[in-house]
Structures are given as structure tokens and as C-alpha cells.
């Protein structure tokens, strides 16, 4: 009787048409289609971040190291270090003193003081007066049209008599510090194998909360994107130049036209390496830190400004409006994954990313693991701010850095 009653009175769901069931599901708050999309987005975001961590570990283990104490050759190749300086007073003295203390005898230093107004000029003049046999300062107060300031400063330095007759040119920013034996070790590395342009990856000094949170992630992202073992491979597109240390043979630099061939290239170090490698020369990269290190930026505003300058220089900048939401979604994944039904994925990412990134940065800098790295998803918001600012600059047709707006052709 019970079975017969059930057959005579089927459940309500059996009497509903598919359209009625869909309406009922919506009233009950069930969204099967939306959940399917969220699942796909959740797993895709997790997979991208996991792949990044795998590449970070892989590239870190394959990053060459410099020999600890190589012998100096009987006739060491000559090197001219070219440093651009514009309002670097906070870091300049320590940086310049470290280069003047190098134990590499065949080194000469040219510094282009590019219109500094913050006391950098006085520091440079003092050092020049103390060591005129190793250092010359060139004052430049004008920027020709069609040039970015740093590129013009590097071109100006490379055309000086002291730079034209050397075997190697070394380009380094005005805030970079090096241990006394660093150049000797770098030259030994370059001489031990075919090398025409060598980049050293420095350790990044961090002080304030914004620097501690953002810069380790940025440095790790660079290592993810540049496979060091493939940089010397002529059949692989990977290349590497670093603003903190790029050593290039004089003939290779001249063969590609130097900085004059790309006067408006904001990411000048990377693009110089790209042009040199494309011309058939050998590009290499090695670890410089912690013996090579710098404090790149002071505080959050400088970080966003730097992101603004570099992002505006990307060749496909017009893709930024479409890429920004994707980058935000991936970077903020631990914040939204619980609401998509994947709290364990969120927890895994939240813990794994700072642990692996912190381990690499600890080895690179010699500093202990920073617990502030647990807030790493906030990097996405800073990236978004810099990207939006960069997009506004591109729409205005300018690149802004160090108080200058330069029109982009």
C-alpha cells in the first residue's frame, strides 16, 4: 500500500518541468553554473601560483654562483664603471665608497650627476677630490629631447675617453653596494667561460613595512620569469640584464649601438641584454647577493612610482586593462577562494607562498624569514595601483621618473 501510495502521489520535484526546477533553484540560492565557473577559476588560480613556486625553486637552484676567492690574472682586463646619479643622497655615499674600495686594480669609475639637487653633488665632489685617479664626475644639467634621463646619462658616460678605451663597461645604479672583492669575482666568472654580457642579481635591502612586504615578492617574480640556465642558450629567448650590475664587453656594447639605440627604453638593463644576445653575443646571469645589494626604494609611494615607470614601458601596454583583473584575481586568490568553496586551497596558498619565497630570499640576502610576508596578497593591490597609474601615463604619452615627464614617441 505504501508503494502504491508513493506511485499515486509522486514527489513534487517529479511534477516540475525543468524550467520550473531552474526557477526554484534560483529562489533557493543555488547557482550550479556559477559554481562550476568558480571552481574552474579557483583551480586555475591555484595552479598558476603553484607553477610559479615550482619555477622559483627550479630557477634558484640553477642560478650560478661566483667563486669565493678567484686569483687575479697577471693582466686583468680594464673596466669602466658607469653610474647615473639623480638625487640619490640617501644611499650614494655608501654605494660609491663600496666601488672605490674594490680590490680590482684595472677599474675606473665615471659618475654622471644628472641634475641632482638634494646634496648628491657635494658627496660626489668630495669623493672625486679624494680619489681623482679612480673617479671622475660629469655634471649634466640638460636632457635632450627623445631621451630618458638614465639612458642619456649612460650614453654620455660610455662616450668619455676613459670608457672608450676599456675592455669592459659596467653599468650600476647609484644606490648599489658591493663587497670589496665583488668585481674581481665577477670578472673571473666572465673570463672562465664565453661571456659578452653578465648580469648579477643583487640582494634587496628592505626597511619599512611596504618594502618588506612587496620587494621580496617582486624579486622572486623576476627569478620566476628569467630561467638562468637558459640565458646563455642562443636558441632560447631568455635574456637578463640588471640595473644593479650589468657587465658588457665594449665591442658588444658598440655593436648594438649602446644606449643610443634605445633612448626611450625605460627597462634599459633588460633590453640592452636582449639586443646584445639577439646580435649573437653570449648573455649570462649569476647570483650577486648578499655581496651585491641595494635599497631600491624608500616606502610605499616610491614603490608605486617605480611600478608606474616600469609598467608604462611594457611593449604591449595596451593589454593592461584586460590583464589587470586577471592579475588581481590570481594575486588575491587566498582572499576569495573560501567564498568559492575552497578554504583549504586558500590556506595552502596563504602558507606556502611566503614560506617558499621567504626561503629563497633568506638565502639570497642572509636575513631571517620575515613574518610580514604572510600578508603577501596585498601585493596585488599595489601592483594594481602602479599599473593604473602607468596606464594613465601611456594615455598621456609620457613616462615619468625622478621628477621628469618625458614624451614617448
In short:
The chain is α/β, with parallel strands linked by helices and 409 residues long. It has 17 helices and 12 strands. The chain has 2 domains: 33-62 and 299-394, no CATH class; 79-202 and 242-294, Spore Coat Polysaccharide Biosynthesis Protein SpsA, Chain A (Alpha-Beta Complex).
State the name of the first-level CATH class of the largest domain: Alpha Beta
The figure for the number of domains is: 2
* Residues in helices, as a percent range: 40-55%
Let me know the largest β-sheet: 7 strands, mixed
CATH architecture of the largest domain, please? Alpha-Beta Complex
How much β-strand is present in the residues?
A: 5-15%
For the biggest β-sheet, the strand order reads 3-2-1-4-8-6-9
Structural class: alpha/beta
Average pLDDT reading: 88
CATH H-level superfamily of the largest domain? Spore Coat Polysaccharide Biosynthesis Protein SpsA, Chain A
General form: globular
User: Order of helices and strands, N to C?
Assistant: HHHHEHEHEHHEEHEEHEHHEEHHHHHEE
Q: What is the number of helical segments per DSSP (H or I, 4+ residues)?
A: 17
